Fold:
Amino acid sequence: MSINLSELTIATARRHLANGDFTAVELAQSYLAEIEKKNKNLNAYREVFDDVLEQAKGADKKLPNFRTSKLPNLCGIPIALKDVIMLAGKRAGACSKILEGYVSPYDATAVSKLKVAGAIFLGRTNMDEFAMGSSTENYAYGVTKNPFDESRVAGGSSGGSAAAVAGNMSLAALGSDTGGSVRQPASLCGVVGLKPTYGSVSRFGLMAMSSSLDVIGPFTKTVEDAELLFDAIKGKDPMDSTSVEVSSSKLQVKSLRIGIPTMIRETEGIDPDVRKNFEDCLKQFRDAGHTVKEIELPTMHYALPVYYVIMPAEVSTNLARFDGVKYGLHVSGKNLLEDYVQTRGTGFGMEARRRILLGTYVLSSGYYDAYYAQAVRVRAKIEQELRDVFAGVDCIATPTSPTPAFKIGEKADDPLQMYLADIFTVVANIAGIPAISIPSGTAMREGKQLPLGLQLMAAHGREDVLFEAGKEFEKLRDNRGGV
Amino acid sequence: MVTETDIEKLALLARVALSEQEKEKLRTDVEAILEYVSDIRKVSGGEERAVPSLVNVMREDGTPHEGGVHTETLLSLAPKREGQYVRVKKIL
Structure:
């Protein structure tokens, strides 16, 4: 059969592969052909692996075994990896010049789990350097363009992974989310993006940006697919002491209680189309008999400033390991100190250095209490408020991004404007709770339909609420005439 | 108020080289960002230092793998090596 990539999901591909409608090799070939056609323009992939067909041949050999078993499996399912997740023997570089030539010595735990499930890795995707940014306008390796309008960004930092799935250049992808880096590009590219509970997916083999916030998350076309992929990569891992086992509870209620933070009404800078679309989404929930009510989260609007203290502090610490001695770029100076300074000055782009300096500032002895210690206190307050709110609602809804995809270059020179793209997403990272972005409609700009996204957040470990509420939303949306 | 001297000190502490042009750009950026995040000082409550809910996870000392099995893989990534060592310029 001919494979219609735009209609294909992991769930349907599994059935077709199991029924023998097409082979893993044929599926991989379809994606490679699409990449060949589009990637030059969109720049979603930094590298397409040279052994994709071999991997697919291996999957075809294994398929008969999986057919007879009831194991959840991803045998033959093509997946793209953000350039910050390690696959042994392949180049990985966080799209930074400082890691030029670096080859992963081992597999990330998420990758080894996907290998066990039989997935195929197509390649590594473009991103903002070290996952710092909201637009994938990479200084060294170029911008990833939005498949819906090539004059616009794909979002970031996992923009390559989002564009790969949106452009049918992969069936699914992994990204990392520190402040919105899975959900925001998913929203801007019209795909589903999940940021799991902090610790539910091992960070082993994920290049660290901000260790108390980072988590690996999937990009897919449907909520069901996000659940399949999350189930394959989650779990406690002896190699990551912050990882946790997530409960496998399933939400049973028929009627959802959805909370809307009052902050949304008060926030300036939300695009009118985004606001209208969000109101439409709430109406669909209400019309279907779900309860939608306003909730008070008085400290929520401090989540972004808190994030821009804690994250750079952890960045400055984590990125200290890149010194031109152990791996990657080495620029020689007069002495060892100069080696460090020159290597890091040359290897890190402007945003990485900006955050390293900010982090060094907020951690310095004179300012530590005013910034870092205070941010930790406010973070605890936000967590407590959310815990209280989740006693009364199943999930919280917001727009994922305050605007549809912006123009390439529009915010490139103004870091603060760029940071505001994360205004609704950072709170989930600050509190460690799970959140998902689901395509919710479009906004017309210059004759092009740009995707919008709805974000749902739930209490710690309650991905099941996001999956059930998300599938319900997809049903309501599609009954109403689709995205 | 962030001065150019502040930026130079931070850059040296953080071991990153900056051009003159970058210093000025970063000075204004860092100043604007610090002003933005200073908002958090307005939040009161939770006066006593937040007690972290996370705990250290320890494991028994042991031999996770045979000695030397990863040596070549890891050393081959070093920009400069000498036999089984990573080579650096003299420190003292």
Q: What stands out?
A: The helical segments of chain B are 4-13, 20-37, 71-75.
